[in-house]
Amino acid sequence: MEQMSVGHAMPISVKIIGNLQVHRGETVLTAASLGGPKPRQIFEILLLNLGTPVSKDRLIDLLWGGRAPGEALATLESYVSVLRRNLQPGCAKTGPLRTANGGYVLEQSLVDLDLHRFNALMLRAEHSTPAEAYPLLVEALALATGPLLSDELAPEWAGEARENHAADVTAVQIMAAEAAHAAGQADKAVHWSQQAVAAEPLNERAWSALVSGYEAAGRYSEGLQAYDKCRRLLDRDLGCTPGPGLRAAHARLLQATAASDGDLSEVLEALLYLNDQMHSHTLQPAARAAVPAKSRSFPAGAGHERAGRVISTFLNRALATA
User: Fold this and answer.
1) Mind listing the domains of the chain with CATH numbers?
2) Distance, CA of 126 to CA of 131 (rounded, Å)
């Protein structure tokens, strides 16, 4: 890569989460200010690879999707000239956009990119304690105000980058929920896990964070409802059941509900017993330890029969009064 002085270069601040926006001093550039769709796309591709050179051949392939015109190289170089004039007027060689060996690069020290900050915060949080991680995760989520590259709906490379970022946002929401739970902030744990579940309805880790959040908040009924919705979604779309950790949380919710509701106590104890019997042989040791012991109402040997009678009696009584 060529070595250029950055002494007189004008740094830029760029937003690509949501609609593209560039701040250069007091000047604000939008997607329409960069010289047309192709120059703008060159800029966005280089932003996605901030600090890493992208070859001219790679840019041509991405811009034209394998259907490049005969004069693609000359056309690419003309687009870059247009982009430079709009992005860094008067600083063709010392601005953020540089010529690299066989391609182009955006000088990382001159570009403050929201996506780069998001990724850096996520990485720091992954290597922090829950108490240290939570504010970092909230700061990252404050940057995620919309889909990545909202101005680029057609290019395949933009769609792939957008999907990857959306998955990262969901992961950060789950991490925030788990960190909040660890810090004793149950309502915040519920808030972030609800967002994660809405984004990825088949993400079992998100459901686990939500059910655990409801449990920690004492919102047992909502936790049971969330578990049931998760169970039905996994069965319908993936043909599987919730994993051991989520089933153990479900068992704890049943026990807590039974202990707090006198009218339904015996019925819930019966369900708890059957849940324990159904899944205890599949649980890992750590998860098995989290499943409550069987109630004394359902003795060994006759437990299934006793639980069945309790549930049947309850249902018959409910139907008779309906």
Assistant:
1) 12-112 (1.10.10.10), 243-322 (no CATH)
2) 12
